[in-house]
Write a structure and sequence with these properties.
The protein has about 300 residues and is α/β, with parallel strands linked by helices. It has two domains: about 40 residues, no CATH class; about 230 residues, 2-enoyl-CoA Hydratase, Chain A, domain 1 (Alpha-Beta Complex). The chain is about 45% helix and about 15% strand. It has a seven-stranded mixed sheet, with helices on both faces. A two-stranded antiparallel ribbon has the order 1-2. Helix 7 runs parallel beside helix 8. It is globular and about 95 Å long.
Amino acid sequence: MAMAEQRNDKPGKGPQAPRERRGWLSRIAPGVRNLVAKRETPENLWVKCPDTGEMIYRSDLEAALWVTPSGHHMRIGAEQRLRYTFDDGQYEKLEAPKGVVDDPLKFPDTKPYMDKLKAARKASGAQDAMSSGYGTIEGVPCVVSVQDFSFMGGSLSVGVGEAFIKAAQEAVKRGVPYVIFTAAGGARMQEGTLALMQMARTTLALNEVKAAGLPYIVVLTDPTTGGVSASYAMLGDIHLAEPNAMVAFAGRRVIEQTIRETLPPGFQRAEFLVERGQIDRVVTRAEMRPVLGSILKTLMMGRERSNAA
């Protein structure tokens, strides 16, 4: 007993014995935790395919123009679309129209309309849902407009209408074709009748393009619906569409409830509409630039011959 008491009285023995019994693992644990923390997966490194649920490495998806291995064409922003469309991704950005009143009706909502606009502008870096640029497609100069569905559903507003008109007038001024990539959930309800009026105003702007003998090409992307599909999205000389893009005026459920019938499979999808003559061709994103270039060269060649005659 005396010997035990003497051992316990020695400095650093009794109270520290349990710490020694934890062994070498406790001594390296902090370093291991730091090592693991440094190797945590960065955010947005993987993207899930909406069709198959497959996890795809983000850099691979970007290299594939945001088309998954299953062929699903994911929605992309206006800036990406313009880069993919113009030769070498180079183009002159057309400034957004100035003097557009943001909230003309002072629309009341659970969240103020101005707050929604500010959030959308901050997220996209654009003034509204439509952006435009001037450049070449397979060597053919043209003006291209793109609707960004991530900006309040790509909805048709006074700002979008003004951007469309300005781009159409720029095409006439430069004597080049006008190409548009549509994507919209319809007219913007916060602007009421003023948004609906853009259907007529954009149609009048297109009359100027056609009066100048210039081609107007529409590329329908997922989804193109409502007032946009009832106006400039269906007034093209040629209508192309990305695979499986939804193109409609009203939704499937609304139609079925109205006519009290079950619609056929694939109804309102690009492939279904090609079979019925509403769309000319379904084109994958990788083929879009060469196909557009071929169409534009052919149409502009016809215009040059007509002018020469």
